[in-house]
Amino acid sequence: MSLKPVTASFFQQPTLELARSLLGMLLVKETEAGTASGWIVETEAYIGPEDRAAHSFGNRRTPRTEVMFGPPGHAYTYVMHTHCLINVVSGPVDHPQVVLIRAVEPYTGTELMYERRGRDKKERELTSGPGKLTKALGITMDDYGRPLFESPLYIAEGKQLGPVETGTRIGIENSGEARDYPWRFWIGGNRFVSK
């Protein structure tokens, strides 16, 4: 399978549709150490400015959230609890919305993932969470703002992985009614989905 980036037009779909469409796609990161990739198996949509769980709630515009106000298809990376997380910017310009990539199933570069995450890790532990997958793939804050339709960090064509399930998002207890929105999507039965 050739690791070829999708076109920029792939990202020009409503955020909830994009969150679903990303499932089964391949997230690829090329580094000097090598290339690592994984099938996306879990995502969460954040539809600010009305979404209390979104960093752009209330149209909050800061140096950190600036990329969210730009065109879709770029990486919004940020650090939470010392872990870098990666989001796909979605929505039209000046409508700051994102899709968080929560988990991937390793595809290429597994050796590299073990080097980055630790040899003692079980395979499932390599990428079964948003902070784990960025470390395994070598995604860092230096990737902030990168277009996700060209090297070295990109989304490539994927495959059907299984049935899509939906539910509430994780770790946003203090966000009022937004904590109940069913905006988390995952591949049913996939062992790399975060717990």
TrEMBL record:
<dbReference type="InterPro" id="IPR011034">
    <property type="entry name" value="Formyl_transferase-like_C_sf"/>
</dbReference>
<protein>
    <recommendedName>
        <fullName>Putative 3-methyladenine DNA glycosylase</fullName>
        <ecNumber>3.2.2.-</ecNumber>
    </recommendedName>
</protein>
<dbReference type="InterPro" id="IPR036995">
    <property type="entry name" value="MPG_sf"/>
</dbReference>
<dbReference type="InterPro" id="IPR003180">
    <property type="entry name" value="MPG"/>
</dbReference>
<comment type="similarity">
    <text>Belongs to the DNA glycosylase MPG family.</text>
</comment>
<keyword id="KW-0234">DNA repair</keyword>
<keyword id="KW-0227">DNA damage</keyword>
<dbReference type="GO" id="GO:0003677">
    <property type="term" value="F:DNA binding"/>
</dbReference>
<dbReference type="Pfam" id="PF02245">
    <property type="entry name" value="Pur_DNA_glyco"/>
</dbReference>
<keyword id="KW-0378">Hydrolase</keyword>
<dbReference type="GO" id="GO:0003905">
    <property type="term" value="F:alkylbase DNA N-glycosylase activity"/>
</dbReference>
<dbReference type="GO" id="GO:0006284">
    <property type="term" value="P:base-excision repair"/>
</dbReference>
